Amino acid sequence: MSSPTESPASGTKEKVLVSGSAGFIGGYVVEELLRRGYSVVGIDNYSKYGPVSKSYDDHPDYNLIKGDVEDTELMTELLVDCDHFIAGAALIGGISYFHTYAYDLLAKNERIIASSCDAAITAHKAGRLKKVTYLSSSMVFESTETWPSREGDERKVPPPLSSYGFQKLAVEYFARAAWDQYKLPYTIVRPFNCVGIGESRALGDVEIDSGNVKLAMSHVVPDLVQKVVKGQDPLHILGEGNQIRHYTYGGDLARGIVEAMSNPAALNDDFNLSTADGHTVVQLAEIIWRKVNGPDKPMTLEHEPAFEYDVQRRVPAVEKARETLGFEATTKLEDMLDEVIPWIEQAMKDGTI
User: Fold this and answer.
1) CA-atom Rg of the chain in angstroms
2) What is the sign of the dihedral through the CA atoms of 154, 159, 160 and 165?
3) Ranges for the NAD-dependent epimerase/dehydratase domain (predicted)?
4) Could you read off the pLDDT of 257-283 as tens digits, one per residue?
5) Residue 187 neighbours by CB distance under 10 Å
6) How do the domains of the chain map onto residue ranges?
């Protein structure tokens, strides 16, 4: 595991700017950075969840700026005083977002990444900023017909069909173009199917009927947990349930992201970050059902029409991250759910999910 060093600019701890720090993955990343001893500046405009409280809000090495990443002047001002930039801010949501906000996912996220790169290029020229670590997505492999998806395949397979996947691919082009023209160092990371606590109902989520339960998140793990906890029987799932996902713990992803940021071997390279274990939606539903209802109650399924962009297989190659960074996502799905299910039950009581 790489450790932070003193910044040559100040003789103090290395400082990292995390955009989208109040978000789902962003929260795990900030925790991991603080655990490793970095000084962290977060920027978020609370556009997704509204104001949220985090366990680290009062940490002496954390400073949260409520601001908009599209404010290039503000971003430049922050980045000239930082050693690293983890560019995680984006308009993002569950699969319903891909349909409801097809244009906004493209236009808003293009503005965010352009502003981020503009500011980072200026800050790097000023001398302190070392590198940008960009959060891409497994959705860059949306149109593949071969598995597992390996680093480099995103430029060989047909482009993503969803505007979200297409824009995430554009993020990777931004990263490489900023290096090609301005020599702004980069690392690209692609998280796969983050599972964890801290994901609440987004302000812009559209409620969708799923049997007798209304859902607003359209992320398969919290959606299934809510339906099972509410006693839905038969349990409604999208499509046949044969969709394969690699559900990866948020804490593991954060370790991989920070390792990619800090490890010299990651310079100007790209990495899939994921567990090696895949599950179908039916297998996921079975595990959740047993954890909530015990071993004896039989599970029956009701199949609903799938969303257009519900990719049937999302299977990553994970060897490169293991061999280059020494990173492996080791948390088992059953263990993730032992943490996630009680959290969702409490969030349901609190009305935040």
Assistant:
1) 20
2) positive
3) 16-273
4) 999 999 999 999 999 999 999 999 999
5) 25
6) 15-195+248-276+316-330, 208-243+278-312+342-350
pTM of the predicted model as reported, rounded to 2 decimal places: 0.92
pLDDT in tens, 28-68: 999 999 999 999 999 999 876 667 788 899 999 999 999 99
Q: At 41, which amino acid appears?
A: V
Mean pLDDT score, 315-334: 98
In angstroms, the CA 216 to CA 17 distance is 30
Q: Which residues contact 142 (CB under 8 A, 6 or more apart)?
A: 160, 161, 162, 165, 309, 311
CATH fold for domain 208-243+278-312+342-350: UDP-galactose 4-epimerase; domain 1 (3.90.25)
Phi, psi torsion values for 341, nearest 5 degrees: -60, -50
Distance CA(175)–CA(326), nearest Å, equals: 23
The CATH number of 15-195+248-276+316-330 is: 3.40.50.720
Q: What is the pLDDT of residues 78-110, one digit of tens each?
A: 999 999 999 999 987 555 566 678 898 999 999
- Using CA atoms, how far residue 329 sits from 8, 149, 174, 233, in Å, is 32, 17, 27, 33
Place of tokens 């199917």: 193
Give yes or no for residue 69 having a pLDDT over 60: yes
